[in-house]
Each structure stands twice: as structure tokens, then as C-alpha cells.
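Input.
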Amino acid sequence: MNRRLRNVKIVATLGPASNDYAMIRALFEAGADVFRLNMSHGDHSEIRVRHEIIRQIEKDLGRPISILADLQGPKLRVGVFANEDGEELVVGAPFRLDLDPAEGDATRVQLPHKEIFAALEPGSSLLVNDGKIRLTVKDCGADYANCEVVVGGVISNRKGVNVPDVLLPLAALSEKDRKDLEFVCQLGVDWLALSFVQRPEDVAEARELAGGRAAILSKIEKPAAVEAFDAILAVSDGIMVARGDLGVELPVQNVPPIQKRLIRRCRAVAKPVIVATQMLESMIDSPMPTRAEVSDVATAIYEGTDAIMLSAESAAGSFPIEAVTTMNNVAIEVEGDANYRDIIAAQRGGKKTTVADSIVVAAREIAETTDIKAICCFTQSGTTAALVSRERPHVPIIALTPLVGTARRLALSWGTHCVMTQDDVDRFKMAVVNAARAAQEAGFATADDQIVVTAGVPFNQPGTTNILRVAPCDERLIYSSDPE
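Output.
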């Protein structure tokens, strides 16, 4: 059953270095729980093949696997230069951006995005090539911006542009994104990641297009998204702290406290959060990470994130399996630290206002004070399992569901071991029997152990979690107990 020995989940991006059955299966067996399909790279035929391979591995191993399709989002780039090697911009020099498609030189270049000019004001900053070049707008109009070079460097063809201090009047979904969204929803991915979200309306648009076929995960990589985070979180199913562009558009020292704050807010409302970007960057070319990278991964785990993500490390690097193995080993070590449990418990909070809240809190407290081997929750929509995950119990969470889509989406949530169960469970006693079998088959318990079982009665109705039982794993004892 490929039982994990840690609770935090690992997201591995697929690409040229991880493109066939053998490698993708090896990544799963090394510890990857979720596979990311980056729609910025690879055409639809390549994405389809990767999706089919993952589903075949899922079938072969009998374990639900989550697939995350990451939409590219609007890419803002300068045009091209007459000199293919680019031009050197010197600090203090003037530089003009405009809509003229003519090849650029040391004084100007095209910026083919009229929406940017409409939003710019004197004093606005423009960052080029991941922030390596910084321009300040001196004056601007509907089709130009005259700037001063504040941080110089070489600017060359089609380098990316960030506008950190302006809310851009751009849709989060480009025409390419809309086509990609429909394609991956028809394939049957579990999560859609939205790039460059600025406002909750961006999420609402994607949700309408997805039509319930995939859960929506918002990437926080713009200052505007940080400012509007609570509103964005309210309409999202999950969050990714995308530290790449966030670290370009904000001072880098701002990113760690933002990361910590966003993780806690996600946990408070029981929505999964991924920490991403440059976690083991050196492992693209090296079989060993730096000590700082290991510390970065460990910090995210100590903060209680649901998942940690590999990008180029697993998609295009020379050591994809080693990268996943490193993350897995760091997670096991951190979660075995006595300080980890204290830190996770101290972060526990959020309003508990429903019967389901009370049930899962009671399940966690029982597991912490008695010899319980696992918390087993029956769930239709995944909400109950997400609430148990929010509690971060020190025993495994077994999420049992008859719905494969629910099982796959829950594979992103902290601590959840997802198991498919029959869809004809209509009595709580049979639910307990199924839970006991699942706990034993997955290696979490023996017939001599006890588990906690939560469910909603009547069954097969989302949002009805209302019952908790401490049960033996021995079926004979279950059947010899009270009728229900």
C-alpha cells in the first residue's frame, strides 16, 4: 500500500527528466504523493501521456494519486532586440518601453501589453529578468513608459517583466489558459493551480470554467494577492505559496513571514497549502542539497504546511529520485523531533463551531490520551478528513471514501492515507469493520489494537459528520458488540 512514514506531502513536477513509466513510478515509490503537470512546458499530447502514466501507476499500485495541473497564467515579456546578445543597461540611464514592434536597442524596447501602460503611474517599478534589472517610471502614457534604470544589467529577448506595486487590469486566465483548463479537466486532473492570482474574482472565473471537475488552488505570487489573501482563500480550495515571483515582487526578507502567516491561515480553515520554489534548487545539478536548502524544507514542515514541492529538481534535473528521497528523509527526521509536536500543537487554533469540528477535535484528543493507532474517517466530499488533518493528530489519518475523486484530492492534505471503500456502506457497524480492515491492511494497526472511527449517519450525505467510536480492530469483537 506504500504507506508513508511521514505526514507532510511531497509534490513532484514532471518534465523531460521524469517522462516515462519507470521514472514516474520510482518517484512515487521514493515518496511523491502528488504529480504536477506544468502547462508552461509541454504540449497537450505530452501532458496526456504523463497523465495516462500516472493513472496506470495508480491502478498498478492500488493507491490514489493526486494530479495537479499548473496553468501558465499571463506572461508579461519584453520584445526582441536587434542585438541578439541583448543590451547593457547602465544605472541612471533612461530607457523607454512602448508598443512599437520595432527591434529594441540600448534606449528602448517593445512591451506588448497595453494593459500595463494603462495601470502605470510615475514612480511605479518595473522588474525585468526575475528582478535582476529594476526600472522606475518617470512619465508614462497609454502606449509608453519612460523609465530610469535603478539596477542595471543585460536585457535581452523576451525577458519577463514584473510590476510589483500596481494591480494590473489583466485576467488571471489567458486564452492559452482557458484552452489548457478545458483540456486538463477533460483528462481528469484533481487540482488546478492558478498563476498570478490578484483578486478573488480571478478564482471565481476559473471555478466557473472548471464546473466542479477539479479543485481550485490559488498561487500567491503577487503583492496584490497577499493583500487580498483572506478573500482569495475564502473562494479557493487550496493555496500555493509560490515564492519565486513573490520574492521578485517583494523584498526577499518579506517572504518568510508571509509564508508563515499564509500557512497558518490555510490551516485555520482546513484548506491545504503547498510551499514551493527553490526548495532543493542545487539538486538540479548535484546529488546532494545545500545545508540551507535542507533547513528551508525543514522550516516549512515545522510551520505545518500540508505539502512541499519540487519544480525543476524533478522535472529537468539530473537527480529527480534523489531530490524526492531527500525531501522524504528530511520530513521523517523533522516529524520525529519532539519539538515538532510541540510546535504543531502550539499552532492549533481556529474557530470550532460545528458538530463536525467537535467530533474531529474529540478524535484527536482521544488519540493523544489513549493507545489509539489511527483515526479513520468516512468522507464523501473530503471535508471531514480535511478537518481531521487540520488538527494535525500524532496518529495516522485514514480517509475512507467511495469516491475516487475525493480520495485523489485528499492525497494533498497533511497526514491523510486515502483508501477506496465500497459505496454500499449503509450501517455504522460495517463502516467500523471496513475501517479496521483498512488500518490492518495498510500496516497502521493489528487485530489487538484500537482505532477511532468517525462518520456521518445517515451515510452518503456530505457534511453530516456526527458520530465517533473507539473500536477494536478485531472483527470478532466488532460483531459481538452492540448492533450499531
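The mean pLDDT is 94.
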